[in-house]
């Protein structure tokens, strides 16, 4: 009899555990994916702010991050235009950065999106990697060593590193 008395709480406990683990596995594709990137908080921030992310598979999450590469690059581009208008010098470096962002937007982002949609993640990783290189070259273009767009460049770089890390799950 004692054993039978224990049965309901045991059953309850088993059901409770299975509900918990089900909930964890549903909620955590984003969490799991972001954990394996170099900037977890940034990854969570961008993925969770996209309304489509809760339904997305890893390719979908990679596409959201590539889109973030695009928007952060556009922000950096806008900052460069502001700086050029101020006319405080460093025009050559600023123009070099403007060219860099153009490459990121017209080449890297485009290639990455196409590649992900075609199921060709190697080229997508290439696009994200190249974005990191492009932004680093913009930062290095200022002879004074003081870039007015460091903050924007760092954001693009971090976002691109997260995108590359997500894409590597697909290789
Ligand atoms: C991208 O960069 C990572 C880390 O630096 C490297 O391991 C990987 O081989 C690169 N991928 C491509 C396609 O160049």
From TrEMBL:
Secretion signal span: 1-26
Key words of the record: Disulfide bond, Signal
GO molecular function, one term: enzyme inhibitor activity
Name under which the protein is recorded: Cell wall / vacuolar inhibitor of fructosidase 1-like
Sequence ranges assigned to domain Pectinesterase inhibitor in this UniProt record: 25-166
Family per similarity comment: Belongs to the PMEI family.
Xref: NCBIfam families: PME_inhib
InterPro entries (UniProt xref): C/VIF1 (IPR034087), Invertase/methylesterase_inhib (IPR035513), Pectinesterase_inhib_dom (IPR006501)
């Amino acid at each position: 009899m004692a054993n039978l008395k224990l049965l309901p709480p045991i059953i309850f406990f088993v059901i409770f555990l299975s509900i918990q683990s089900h909930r964890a596995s549903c909620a955590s594709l984003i969490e799991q994916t972001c954990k394996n990137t170099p900037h977890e908080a940034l990854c969570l921030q961008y993925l969770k702010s996209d309304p489509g992310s809760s339904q997305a598979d890893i390719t979908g999450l990679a596409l959201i991050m590539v889109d973030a590469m695009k928007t952060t690059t556009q922000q950096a581009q806008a900052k460069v235009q502001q700086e050029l208008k101020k006319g405080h010098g460093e025009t050559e470096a600023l123009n070099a950065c403007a060219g860099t962002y153009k490459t990121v937007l017209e080449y890297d982002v485009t290639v990455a999106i196409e590649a992900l949609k075609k199921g060709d993640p190697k080229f997508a990783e290439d696009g994200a990697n190249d974005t990191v290189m492009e932004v680093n070259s913009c930062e290095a273009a200022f002879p004074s060593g003081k870039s007015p767009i460091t903050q924007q460049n760092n954001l693009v770089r971090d976002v691109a590193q997260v995108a590359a890390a997500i894409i590597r799950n697909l290789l």
